[in-house]
Fold this protein.
Amino acid sequence: MNVNDKAYKEKVYELVRQIPVGHVMTYGQIATILGEGYTPRTVGYVMHAAETENVPWQRVINSQGKCSTGRLTIPMNLQQQMLEQEGVEFNAKGKCDLNKFVWWPEGSEPEELHPSLFS
DNA sequence: AACTTGACGAGGG
DNA sequence: CCCCTCGCCAAGT
């Protein structure tokens, strides 16, 4: 199972497609939930191609609650703007409250998977 | 094959 | 809160 396998990528996309409007998930969170073979970096790698996969890619941000699209082909601030349009709030420094906007799939346990991340 | 660069993350200063 | 280091894993050069 490597990052180029169709099935490997699909698992990421399927999960991302489940994120409700107005909510987000982090790369590390996705990697933890998918488990075996997935790491934050590989999730990020898979996501760079998400634009063409009918996936709400804007709902995936980093563990600091910020958008990591600075040096991409994606226009600056586009991701944040799209999220704000869905109701996700960001402070002046471009950071959102993960406690409030992160979404957890049915069955996962936030406290256990993501200890003291939200401060 | 060596080295650099990421849509990353945690810990320390 | 910012910055740096390290661990991580795959791609590009």
